[in-house]
Sequence to fold (283 residues):
Amino acid sequence: MAKTIAVVGAGLMGSGIAQSVAMAKKSVRLYDISEAALEKGIALIQKSLSRFVKAGKLTEQDAQQTLQRIRTGTDLQEVVEGADVVIEAVPEDLSLKKDVFQKLDRYTKREAILATNTSELSVTAIAAATTRPDKVIGMHWFNPAPVMKLIEIVKGETTSEETVAVIQQLSEEIGKETVIVKDRQGFFTTRAIAAHMIECIRMYEEGVASAEDIDKAVRLGLNYPMGPLELADMVGLDTMLFVSENLTEAYGDRFRAPQILRKLVEAGHLGRKTGKGFYTYNE
Ligand SMILES: CC(=O)CC(=O)SCCNC(=O)CCNC(=O)[C@H](O)C(C)(C)COP(=O)(O)OP(=O)(O)OC[C@H]1O[C@@H](n2cnc3c(N)ncnc32)[C@H](O)[C@@H]1OP(=O)(O)O
Ligand SMILES: NC(=O)C1=CN([C@@H]2O[C@H](COP(=O)(O)OP(=O)(O)OC[C@H]3O[C@@H](n4cnc5c(N)ncnc54)[C@H](O)[C@@H]3O)[C@@H](O)[C@H]2O)C=CC1
Fold:
């Protein structure tokens, strides 16, 4: 059973992953490259915990204890040594992830499992950067991590069945449901989300309907919790552009990014995180 979990990267996803694991009463060690990044991550966790408290899903005491289970640090070796499972959530860049995994391979005990939260990079390529490719796996969470029920487990070409079983059990202990998918570009979920989102952005660009009406139609007509344009703003338009480029390379033109997506990214309008994307935010 995986008892001690380390999370590498305390951004949007890493902070939510650390919180979810701590809410399941497991010890968490959280690493980022600077104290400032860790402080930002902890602030996100506090904000999310207070939503759970407000909704009556956690007591104030549970929230405090959850926070106390998360130990932060900026020394990677110190944070990850002794961990049973490390979950990586650094930016979506293959060479950065390979570099991080080489370090994790050096600093963790031989039996530790190294999981990546990549949205669509090759788990097999990340595994090949280590000396334990059988113990490297995709553990793909969804935003907001403490709320979303699914973990998509991505079995790389070299991932062992034992590794899949440990991550499946860990996911269940955290209260998540799992699906197991092959390591193909975009796995299942990223490819499925992108296909829908890109077509909706294309229709927005063609002027078929306004942003508000496209989102309303999908929310009320298709019963999705969010419309595709507001979801793109939440995920990050830079991320969606990157996903679209990689999917286009793998599957062709049907995933090609609409001009408007590229222009928004070029203008620095990346969605919620910059205050502007398809919509403008004042938070
Ligand atoms: C890019 C990738 O690789 C993969 C991805 O992540 S793709 C993106 C996947 N995510 C999605 O598709 C999200 C779609 N959206 C949703 O599921 C929902 O809109 C949402 C959960 C984000 C918000 O739910 P909502 O009903 O629209 O709004 P809201 O009423 O504010 O929230 C619903 C509940 O969740 C809670 N909640 C929402 N975000 C929260 C957070 N970050 N922390 C804690 N609680 C949260 C709210 O407090 C609320 O609780 P109650 O029902 O008890 O009041
Ligand atoms: N944003 C989303 O909706 C989702 C993102 N993902 C994936 O999760 C990963 C992280 O994405 P986000 O959390 O959105 O990014 P983010 O930009 O919010 O967070 C990344 C964090 O990594 C830190 N970092 C940078 N270099 C590092 C290094 N060398 N070592 C450790 N930390 C480092 C940054 O300081 C930052 O805190 C990506 O692979 C992304 O594709 C997966 C599911 C959903």
